[in-house]
Write a structure and sequence with these properties.
There is one protein chain. Helices cover 65% and strands 2% of the residues. The protein is an all-alpha fold. Among the domains are: 43-203, Serine Threonine Protein Phosphatase 5, Tetratricopeptide repeat (Alpha Horseshoe), CATH 1.25.40.10; 276-338, no CATH class; 339-359 and 615-774, Alpha Horseshoe (Serine Threonine Protein Phosphatase 5, Tetratricopeptide repeat), CATH 1.25.40. The chain starts with 21 loop residues before the first helix and ends with a strand.
Length: 774
C-alpha cells in the first residue's frame, strides 16, 4: 500500500464533478447564495463525526494491542518447504495508518466547513471503506497466526476488494493458499501482488514486498538482492531470516548460518541444528537441537532430528534411551517425522572419497586387530609334529598347537592317531585357504566327538576367521568349559564375546580363577589376549620381552606396539613376520603399510601400484581364506587404483576349471560391489546361493548390498533376514535391515533391529538420506 495521502479524483469537465471553487460558480450563475450552518449546528454532521471518532478510537486500541503482542515467528524449518508466516503490520506502519485516518477526517471536516458538503461526504465514505479494509487485513493476520488459513484467505480477499493494502494482502493470501495446498490460488495471488506492486513505489517497504514475491515465485537470486536493499529496521531481521532460507535452499549452508546468527528476532536453534547436521557437523547440530527441544513448538522436530543424527553416527542405544525417556510408546511418531531413503555409501565406489577417508593403517581399531589375530591364531591338534607331516605348507608349525590334555578323552593310541590324521586333513584345507570347506568338515567331525575341547576350539576358530563372532564365542566357550586347561579357547572366547557384545564377566572370572590356582600355568600369551579383549594396552607391555617368535606371537607384539605408540618395536616385529611368511598377502599389506604410512595418499598409492602390480603372492587366500585378507586387499586395491586390474586377474583364474570356482566367484562378486557393478555382483551372488548352495551370513549380506545397489530393496530385506538367521550377531545385517524397515515405514521391526545394535557401530556399506517433507 502506497504511503501517500488519498486524493479524491476530480472530473475534468462539467456535470456533477466537484471543484474547490464550486461556491463561486453558484454565485455567478444567479442562484441565491445559502449561508452554510456552522458545523456544530448540524446534528447530522455531529452524529457522523461521533461515529467516525468512535471507529478511530477502536482502531487505535486494536492496533496498539496487536503491536503490544510479542512477535512470534512462524515455525520455519530451514531445509524444508514450509514457508514464512503472515506479514505483520509494524509499529511505524501502525502509526502511519492511524495518522492517515486522522488526516482524512480533518480534510473531510475542512470541506464541510467550507460548505462543500457532498465532497466532504465522499471523503467520509472513503474513510469508512478504508477502515473496513484495514480491519479485514488485520483480522486476516490474526487468523493466519492462529493457522486458520481458510478464514484468513477470505479476510485478505475482502481487504483486496476494498482497494486497500492490496499488495501485502495479496502476498498473505498467496501464503494462505500455499498452506491450504491450493497451487492455483497461490499462483493467482502472487501474480496479483505483482500487479499491485507499482502502487507501492513510494513505500519504504517496496523492496521487502518485491523480495517476498520473488521468494515465493522461486526467484531466489532476485529475492536475495532485494532483501539486501531493505532499509526498514523493523524488517531487517525478517530479511536476514528469509535470506537464510534461500541460502539453505541453494545449498549455501555457511551463508545461511551467518544470516541466522546475525538476526535477533527469531529463535533459530532448530534451523541451526538442522543446517549443522546437513553439513555433518554433528556436535554443533546436537547442541542446537537439544536447546530447541526445550521449546514446545520445536520439540518433536528437534527430537526427530537428534534421533536421525544418532542413526547417522551409530549411537543406536543413545537414540533409543532418549526416545524411551521422552516419548515412550510414541517412538513411531518421532521416526515418521521424516521419511528416509536407504542407499550405499558413496565411498564404496568413489576412489576420491575412499582416498580422502582412507587411514593408512590396517590395525587402526580393535575389530581389525582381532581379525588379524584370529588369522594368525594356531589350530589345535593332538600331536603337532605328527599332524605337520600331513599338511603341505611351509612354516606349518606356526599354525599348529598341541592340545592340552587331549589324549585324556581319546583313550586308545589308535583312536588318538586316527583322529589326529582327520584333524590334520581338515586343518590343511583351512591353511590352503578353503576355509568354508574346513568349517563344514569340523562340524561333521564334531558329530562323532561332540564333547571334545579341541574340535570345539577348531570349529570356533574357523567361525572367527569367517567373522561369525557369535558362533565363535559359543564354541570357544564350550571348548573351555570342556577343558579348563585350554586357555587359548578361554582367551579367544573372551575376545569373540567382546566383539559380539556378549556378557563375558562371568566367564572371565572363571578363567582368572583357574589361572590363579594353576601352579603349572605358563601361557602368558593367552592371558595377554584377555588383556587385549579388555583394552588394557599398557598391561600388555611386558609381553614384548617374550622370546616366542611364532607368527601369532609376532603379530600380537606388533599390535601391542601399535597400541602403545612404539613404532620401532612395531617395524621390527612386522619385518620378522615378513621374513617368515614372504608370500602371504596380509603380511605383505602390513609390511607395505609400515614402510609407506608416512607418505601422502598420492605417493602412497603410487608406491602401492609398483609394489603389488606384479608381486608373487599366494592369491588363494583371496578366494577362500579368512575374510580379513579379502577385505584388506580389496580395500587397498580400490584406494590405489588397481581394482579393475585385479578383477581381470580373478576372471582369468575363474576360466581355469580346476581353480576354486566358489571362492573366486565370491571374490569377484565382492570386487564388483566396489567397482559399482551391482547388477553383475547380484547375479554372481545369486549363483553362489542358489547353484553353489553357499548359505553363510556374510554371503547373504553382501548379496543384499548388491540388491540395494541394483535398486531391489525387497530382495535385500529377504536376504538380510536370512543373514540375520545365520548369524544373529551380524551387526551390518541388523543396521541394513533396520534402515530398510524404517524406509518402508514399518517402524516396529526397525526399532527392534536398532535395539540389537551396539553403540558406535558404523556400517561400512549402508547410509540413508532424509527426504524433503512434501
Amino acid at each position: 500500500m502506497a504511503e501517500e495521502e488519498v486524493i479524491l479524483k476530480e472530473n475534468s469537465g462539467g456535470g456533477s464533478g466537484f471543484s474547490r471553487d464550486s461556491g463561486k460558480e453558484e454565485a455567478e450563475s444567479g442562484f441565491e447564495e445559502v449561508k452554510p450552518k456552522k458545523w456544530y449546528e448540524d446534528s447530522k454532521f455531529i452524529f457522523i463525526l461521533a461515529v467516525l471518532l468512535g471507529i478511530l478510537l477502536f482502531l487505535i486500541v486494536v492496533l496498539m494491542f496487536l503491536y503490544s503482542q510479542n512477535k512470534t515467528p512462524a515455525n520455519v524449518i530451514i531445509p524444508s518447504s514450509v514457508e514464512a508466516g503472515p506479514i505483520q503490520t509494524t509499529d511505524e506502519s501502525l502509526k502511519f495508518e492511524a495518522d492517515k485516518i486522522d488526516g482524512m477526517i480533518q480534510k473531510a471536516n475542512a470541506l464541510y466547513l467550507k460548505g462543500e458538503r457532498e465532497q466532504a461526504l465522499k471523503v467520509y465514505e472513503q474513510i469508512a471503506l478504508y477502515s473496513e479494509a484495514l480491519s479485514n487485513y488485520n483480522l486476516g493476520v490474526s487468523q493466519m497466526n492462529q493457522k486458520n488459513f481458510t478464514q484468513a484467505l477470505q479476510s485478505f480477499q475482502r481487504a483486496i476488494q476494498s482497494n486497500e493494502n492490496q499488495t501485502v494482502a495479496a502476498i498473505n493470501a498467496a501464503v494462505c493458499a500455499l498452506y491450504l495446498g491450493d497451487q492455483k490460488q497461490f499462483d493467482y495471488y502472487l501474480d496479483l501482488a505483482l500487479v499491485y506492486l507499482p502502487n507501492e513505489g513510494d513505500s519504504e517497504l517496496f523492496e521487502y514486498y518485491l523480495s517476498l514475491i520473488n521468494y515465493y515465485k522461486g526467484f531466489y537470486p532476485e529475492a536475495l538482492q532485494s532483501f539486501q536493499k531493505v532499509q526498514v529496521e523493523h524488517y531487517a531481521d525478517e530479511s536476514k531470516f528469509l535470506s537464510a532460507k534461500i541460502y539453505a535452499k541453494m545449498g549455501l549452508n555457511t551463508k545461511s548460518i551467518e544470516n541466522l546468527q546475525n538476526q535477533g528476532s527469531y529463535e533459530v536453534s532448530l534451523p541451526l541444528g538442522l543446517l549443522y547436521a546437513r553439513m555433518g557437523r554433528y556436535g554443533e547440530a546436537k547442541t542446537n537441537l537439544e536447546r530447541a527441544m526445550k521449546i514446545e513448538r520445536d520439540f518433536n522436530q528437534s527430537l526427530a532430528a537428534l534421533s536421525f543424527i544418532d542413526l547417522k553416527i551409530g549411537k543406536y542405544q543413545d537414540m533409543l534411551e532418549r526416545l524411551n525417556a521422552l516419548v515412550k510408546g510414541n517412538e513411531h511418531n518421532i521416526l515418521k517425522t521424516n521419511k528416509i531413503k536407504v542407499s550405499l555409501k558413496k565411498e564404496l565406489t568413489s576412489i576420491q572419497i575412499a582416498q580422502d577417508n582412507f587411514i593408512k593403517d590396517f590395525l587402526k581399531d580393535k575389530k581389525e586387530q582381532a581379525d588379524i589375530l584370529f588369522y594368525f591364531a594356531p589350530y589345535q591338534v593332538f600331536d603337532a609334529k605328527e599332524a605337520a607331516n600331513y599338511i603341505n605348507k611351509a612354516n606349518v608349525s606356526s599354525f599348529l598347537q598341541d592340545d592340552q590334555g587331549g589324549d585324556s578323552y581319546l583313550m586308545s593310541s589308535h583312536t588318538l592317531s586316527s583322529t589326529n590324521v582327520k584333524l590334520a586333513r581338515i586343518i590343511s584345507h583351512a591353511l590352503e585357504h578353503k576355509l568354508s570347506l574346513a568349517n563344514e568338515e569340523f562340524k561333521n567331525l564334531l558329530q562323532t566327538y561332540k564333547e571334545h575341547s579341541i574340535l570345539q576350539y577348531n570349529l570356533a576358530l574357523s567361525y572367527a576367521q569367517l567373522q561369525n563372532y557369535d558362533l565363535a564365542f559359543k564354541h570357544f566357550s564350550t571348548a573351555y568349559h570342556i577343558n579348563p586347561k585350554n586357555y587359548a579357547a578361554g582367551a579367544f572366547a573372551i575376545l569373540a564375546g567382546s566383539l559380539s557384545d556378549k556378557d563375558i564377566l562371568k566367564l572371565q572370572g572363571e578363567i582368572l580363577d583357574n589361572i590363579n590356582t594353576d601352579d603349572n600355568f605358563d601361557q602368558q600369551l593367552y592371558q595377554n589376549i584377555m588383556f587385549f579383549a579388555n583394552n588394557e594396552s599398557s598391561t600388555m607391555l611386558s609381553y614384548l620381552d617374550s622370546e616366542d617368535n611364532s607368527s601369532f606371537s609376532l603379530i600380537f607384539k606388533a599390535i601391542i606396539a601399535k597400541m602403545n605408540n612404539l613404532p620401532n618395536e612395531f617395524d621390527k616385529d612386522i619385518n620378522l613376520l615378513k621374513q617368515a611368511l614372504n608370500d602371504d598377502i596380509l603380511v605383505n599389506i602390513l609390511y607395505f603399510n609400515a614402510k609407506n604410512s608416512n607418505l601422502n595418499i598420492k605417493e602412497y598409492a603410487q608406491n602401492a601400484q609398483i609394489y603389488f602390480k606384479d608381486s608373487e603372492l599366494d592369491y588363494r587366500a583371496l578366494a577362500g581364506g579368512a575374510r580379513v585378507v579379502r577385505d584388506s586387499y580389496v580395500s587397498l586395491m580400490r584406494v590405489v587404483g588397481l581394482l579393475n586390474q585385479k578383477r581381470e586377474f580373478i576372471k582369468q583364474k575363474l576360466a581355469i576349471k580346476d581353480e576354486d570356482q566358489v571362492g573366486l566367484t565370491s571374490t569377484l562378486a565382492y570386487m564388483d560391489i566396489y567397482a559399482g557393478l551391482y547388477g553383475e555382483a547380484y547375479a554372481l551372488y545369486d549363483t553362489l546361493i542358489n547353484d553353489y548352495k553357499v548359505k553363510d551370513s556374510m554371503t547373504y549380506f553382501l548379496a543384499a548390498v548388491a540388491a540395494i545397489g541394483s535398486n531391489n530393496p525387497n530382495a535385500a530385506i529377504a536376504l538380510l533376514e536370512l543373514s540375520k538367521l545365520e548369524d544373529t550377531g551380524n551387526q551390518e545385517s541388523r543396521v541394513a535391515l533396520g534402515l530398510l524397515y524404517h524406509e518402508v515405514q514399518n517402524y516396529e521391526p526397525a526399532l527392534y533391529q536398532y535395539q540389537q545394535i551396539k553403540n558406535d557401530f558404523q556400517s561400512k556399506f549402508f547410509t540413508f538420506d532424509i527426504l524433503k517433507t512434501p
